[in-house]
Design brief:
The chain is α/β, with parallel strands linked by helices and 218 residues long. The chain has helices at 28-39, 67-78, 120-125, 145-158, 196-217; strands at 3-8, 13-14, 20-21, 43-48, 60-63, 83-86, 93-95, 114-116, 132-139, 163-168, 176-183, 188-195. The chain has a single domain, classed as CoaB-like (Rossmann fold, 3-Layer(aba) Sandwich). The two termini are 19 Å apart. It binds cytidine-5'-monophosphate. Cytidine-5'-monophosphate (C5P) binds next to helix 3 and strand 9.
Protein backbone atom coordinates (compact mmCIF):
# COMPACT_ATOMS: atom_id res chain seq x y z
CA UNK A 1 0.00 0.00 0.00
CA UNK A 2 1.37 3.34 -1.09
CA UNK A 3 0.07 6.81 -0.14
CA UNK A 4 -0.68 8.76 -3.29
CA UNK A 5 -1.37 12.49 -3.61
CA UNK A 6 -3.17 13.40 -6.83
CA UNK A 7 -3.93 16.93 -8.04
CA UNK A 8 -6.70 17.13 -10.63
CA UNK A 9 -9.12 19.36 -12.47
CA UNK A 10 -8.76 23.00 -13.48
CA UNK A 11 -8.29 25.96 -11.17
CA UNK A 12 -10.40 29.12 -11.24
CA UNK A 13 -8.72 32.46 -10.86
CA UNK A 14 -11.34 34.98 -9.87
CA UNK A 15 -11.40 38.44 -11.44
CA UNK A 16 -14.32 39.42 -9.23
CA UNK A 17 -16.92 37.46 -7.27
CA UNK A 18 -18.61 36.26 -10.46
CA UNK A 19 -16.02 36.13 -13.25
CA UNK A 20 -12.93 33.96 -13.42
CA UNK A 21 -10.16 32.65 -15.69
CA UNK A 22 -10.04 28.89 -16.11
CA UNK A 23 -9.70 26.10 -18.68
CA UNK A 24 -11.67 23.12 -19.95
CA UNK A 25 -10.10 20.38 -17.83
CA UNK A 26 -12.82 17.93 -16.80
CA UNK A 27 -10.91 16.25 -13.96
CA UNK A 28 -11.64 12.89 -15.56
CA UNK A 29 -8.02 11.76 -15.77
CA UNK A 30 -7.38 12.70 -12.13
CA UNK A 31 -10.49 10.86 -10.95
CA UNK A 32 -9.55 7.84 -13.10
CA UNK A 33 -6.08 7.87 -11.49
CA UNK A 34 -7.67 8.00 -8.03
CA UNK A 35 -10.00 5.10 -8.87
CA UNK A 36 -7.13 3.05 -10.33
CA UNK A 37 -5.00 3.69 -7.24
CA UNK A 38 -7.84 2.63 -4.91
CA UNK A 39 -8.49 -0.48 -7.01
CA UNK A 40 -4.85 -1.47 -6.42
CA UNK A 41 -5.30 -0.94 -2.67
CA UNK A 42 -3.46 2.38 -2.28
CA UNK A 43 -4.42 5.32 -0.06
CA UNK A 44 -5.41 8.43 -2.02
CA UNK A 45 -5.58 12.15 -1.26
CA UNK A 46 -7.27 13.86 -4.22
CA UNK A 47 -6.83 17.65 -4.38
CA UNK A 48 -9.54 18.59 -6.83
CA UNK A 49 -10.40 21.83 -8.59
CA UNK A 50 -14.00 22.70 -9.53
CA UNK A 51 -15.31 19.80 -11.64
CA UNK A 52 -18.56 17.94 -12.06
CA UNK A 53 -17.25 14.42 -12.60
CA UNK A 54 -18.16 11.93 -9.87
CA UNK A 55 -15.39 11.30 -7.37
CA UNK A 56 -14.48 7.65 -6.76
CA UNK A 57 -15.41 6.19 -3.36
CA UNK A 58 -12.90 5.73 -0.51
CA UNK A 59 -10.76 8.63 -1.65
CA UNK A 60 -9.98 11.58 0.64
CA UNK A 61 -11.13 14.55 -1.46
CA UNK A 62 -9.87 18.08 -0.82
CA UNK A 63 -11.90 20.52 -2.92
CA UNK A 64 -10.22 23.75 -3.97
CA UNK A 65 -10.94 26.61 -6.35
CA UNK A 66 -7.78 28.62 -7.08
CA UNK A 67 -4.17 27.61 -7.75
CA UNK A 68 -3.10 29.09 -4.41
CA UNK A 69 -5.72 26.97 -2.62
CA UNK A 70 -4.59 23.91 -4.60
CA UNK A 71 -0.99 24.58 -3.61
CA UNK A 72 -1.91 24.93 0.09
CA UNK A 73 -3.96 21.70 0.07
CA UNK A 74 -1.24 19.78 -1.81
CA UNK A 75 1.40 21.01 0.64
CA UNK A 76 -0.74 19.81 3.56
CA UNK A 77 -1.03 16.32 2.04
CA UNK A 78 2.58 16.12 0.87
CA UNK A 79 4.09 14.97 4.18
CA UNK A 80 2.04 11.76 4.19
CA UNK A 81 2.59 11.01 0.48
CA UNK A 82 4.97 8.45 -1.04
CA UNK A 83 3.94 9.35 -4.54
CA UNK A 84 2.64 12.55 -6.12
CA UNK A 85 0.74 12.56 -9.41
CA UNK A 86 0.07 16.10 -10.66
CA UNK A 87 -2.74 15.81 -13.19
CA UNK A 88 -4.25 19.24 -12.49
CA UNK A 89 -4.54 21.84 -15.25
CA UNK A 90 -3.39 24.72 -13.09
CA UNK A 91 -4.04 28.20 -14.51
CA UNK A 92 -0.67 29.78 -15.26
CA UNK A 93 -1.85 33.29 -14.29
CA UNK A 94 -4.20 34.91 -11.83
CA UNK A 95 -5.52 38.47 -11.66
CA UNK A 96 -3.22 40.70 -9.61
CA UNK A 97 -6.25 41.75 -7.55
CA UNK A 98 -9.74 40.31 -7.06
CA UNK A 99 -12.53 42.86 -7.12
CA UNK A 100 -15.57 42.57 -4.88
CA UNK A 101 -19.04 41.98 -6.32
CA UNK A 102 -19.62 42.20 -10.09
CA UNK A 103 -18.30 45.54 -11.31
CA UNK A 104 -20.27 46.93 -14.27
CA UNK A 105 -18.62 47.31 -17.67
CA UNK A 106 -17.26 50.86 -17.73
CA UNK A 107 -15.33 51.28 -20.99
CA UNK A 108 -14.80 49.80 -24.47
CA UNK A 109 -11.46 48.42 -23.53
CA UNK A 110 -10.11 46.98 -20.33
CA UNK A 111 -6.66 45.77 -19.37
CA UNK A 112 -6.44 43.04 -16.77
CA UNK A 113 -3.19 42.70 -14.87
CA UNK A 114 -2.10 39.11 -14.28
CA UNK A 115 0.60 37.64 -12.05
CA UNK A 116 2.07 34.15 -12.39
CA UNK A 117 0.80 31.30 -10.25
CA UNK A 118 3.32 29.09 -8.46
CA UNK A 119 4.30 25.84 -10.17
CA UNK A 120 2.80 23.45 -7.64
CA UNK A 121 4.43 20.21 -8.78
CA UNK A 122 7.88 21.81 -9.23
CA UNK A 123 7.66 23.21 -5.69
CA UNK A 124 6.86 19.77 -4.28
CA UNK A 125 9.46 17.98 -6.41
CA UNK A 126 12.18 20.35 -5.19
CA UNK A 127 11.86 18.78 -1.73
CA UNK A 128 10.70 15.30 -2.63
CA UNK A 129 13.37 13.30 -0.75
CA UNK A 130 12.37 9.66 -1.40
CA UNK A 131 9.04 10.41 -2.99
CA UNK A 132 8.30 9.77 -6.64
CA UNK A 133 6.76 12.75 -8.43
CA UNK A 134 4.84 12.38 -11.68
CA UNK A 135 3.80 15.26 -13.93
CA UNK A 136 1.72 15.61 -17.06
CA UNK A 137 2.76 17.37 -20.25
CA UNK A 138 -0.27 18.19 -22.34
CA UNK A 139 0.86 19.32 -25.77
CA UNK A 140 -1.38 21.75 -27.59
CA UNK A 141 0.79 22.28 -30.67
CA UNK A 142 0.29 20.43 -33.94
CA UNK A 143 4.00 19.60 -34.21
CA UNK A 144 3.33 15.92 -33.55
CA UNK A 145 4.11 13.27 -31.00
CA UNK A 146 7.91 13.40 -31.13
CA UNK A 147 7.96 17.14 -30.50
CA UNK A 148 5.54 16.59 -27.63
CA UNK A 149 7.81 13.91 -26.15
CA UNK A 150 10.82 16.25 -26.43
CA UNK A 151 8.93 18.96 -24.56
CA UNK A 152 7.84 16.40 -22.00
CA UNK A 153 11.44 15.37 -21.40
CA UNK A 154 12.36 19.01 -20.92
CA UNK A 155 9.65 19.27 -18.22
CA UNK A 156 10.97 16.11 -16.60
CA UNK A 157 14.35 17.76 -16.08
CA UNK A 158 13.19 21.33 -15.41
CA UNK A 159 10.63 20.35 -12.76
CA UNK A 160 12.77 17.54 -11.25
CA UNK A 161 10.08 14.94 -11.97
CA UNK A 162 10.56 11.16 -11.98
CA UNK A 163 8.05 10.40 -14.69
CA UNK A 164 6.25 12.54 -17.26
CA UNK A 165 3.00 11.57 -18.93
CA UNK A 166 2.91 13.15 -22.39
CA UNK A 167 -0.60 13.66 -23.76
CA UNK A 168 -1.65 15.11 -27.08
CA UNK A 169 -3.99 18.09 -26.70
CA UNK A 170 -7.08 16.35 -28.01
CA UNK A 171 -7.03 14.54 -24.65
CA UNK A 172 -8.51 17.51 -22.84
CA UNK A 173 -12.09 16.83 -21.83
CA UNK A 174 -12.18 13.76 -24.08
CA UNK A 175 -12.44 10.11 -23.21
CA UNK A 176 -9.59 8.59 -25.17
CA UNK A 177 -6.03 9.87 -25.26
CA UNK A 178 -2.69 9.14 -26.89
CA UNK A 179 -0.11 8.87 -24.16
CA UNK A 180 3.63 8.33 -23.78
CA UNK A 181 5.37 7.76 -20.43
CA UNK A 182 8.88 9.23 -20.21
CA UNK A 183 11.28 8.11 -17.47
CA UNK A 184 14.43 9.77 -16.14
CA UNK A 185 16.74 7.02 -17.46
CA UNK A 186 15.65 7.81 -21.02
CA UNK A 187 13.17 4.92 -21.27
CA UNK A 188 9.83 5.58 -22.86
CA UNK A 189 6.61 3.61 -22.94
CA UNK A 190 4.04 4.32 -25.67
CA UNK A 191 0.54 3.45 -24.54
CA UNK A 192 -2.10 2.43 -27.05
CA UNK A 193 -4.97 4.83 -27.73
CA UNK A 194 -7.39 3.73 -25.06
CA UNK A 195 -9.84 5.14 -22.55
CA UNK A 196 -8.65 7.11 -19.54
CA UNK A 197 -9.40 4.28 -17.11
CA UNK A 198 -6.94 1.93 -18.80
CA UNK A 199 -4.35 4.71 -19.17
CA UNK A 200 -4.77 5.66 -15.50
CA UNK A 201 -4.18 2.08 -14.33
CA UNK A 202 -0.93 1.91 -16.35
CA UNK A 203 0.29 5.28 -15.02
CA UNK A 204 -0.38 4.32 -11.39
CA UNK A 205 1.42 0.98 -11.79
CA UNK A 206 4.41 2.56 -13.52
CA UNK A 207 4.71 5.17 -10.76
CA UNK A 208 4.35 2.62 -7.97
CA UNK A 209 7.01 0.43 -9.63
CA UNK A 210 9.39 3.43 -9.73
CA UNK A 211 8.75 4.03 -6.03
CA UNK A 212 9.35 0.36 -5.14
CA UNK A 213 12.58 0.24 -7.17
CA UNK A 214 13.90 3.35 -5.48
CA UNK A 215 13.01 2.04 -2.06
CA UNK A 216 14.74 -1.27 -2.62
CA UNK A 217 17.82 0.50 -4.08
CA UNK A 218 18.27 2.76 -1.04
O1 LIG B 1 4.38 23.54 -17.47
P1 LIG B 1 3.10 22.83 -17.65
O2 LIG B 1 1.90 23.57 -17.14
O3 LIG B 1 2.87 22.26 -19.02
O4 LIG B 1 3.29 21.54 -16.70
C1 LIG B 1 2.30 20.60 -16.53
C2 LIG B 1 2.55 19.82 -15.26
O5 LIG B 1 2.86 20.69 -14.18
C3 LIG B 1 1.30 19.08 -14.82
O6 LIG B 1 1.73 17.95 -14.09
C4 LIG B 1 0.62 20.10 -13.91
O7 LIG B 1 -0.26 19.50 -12.99
C5 LIG B 1 1.81 20.74 -13.23
N1 LIG B 1 1.63 22.17 -12.88
C6 LIG B 1 1.54 22.55 -11.55
N2 LIG B 1 1.41 23.88 -11.23
C7 LIG B 1 1.37 24.81 -12.20
C8 LIG B 1 1.47 24.44 -13.57
C9 LIG B 1 1.60 23.11 -13.88
O8 LIG B 1 1.56 21.69 -10.66
N3 LIG B 1 1.25 26.10 -11.87
Amino acid sequence: MVSILITAGPTREHIDDVRFLSNGSSGRMGCALAAAARADGHRVDLVLGPVEVPVPPEVAVHRVVSALEMQAAAERCFGAADLVIAAAAVADWRPAARQAGKPARAADRWTLELVPNPDIVAGLAARKERRVVVGFALDATSAGLEAAVARGRDKLVRKQLDLVVVNLADAIGGDDSKTVLCFTDGRRQDLPVQDKRATAATIVRAAVTEWQQRRSAS
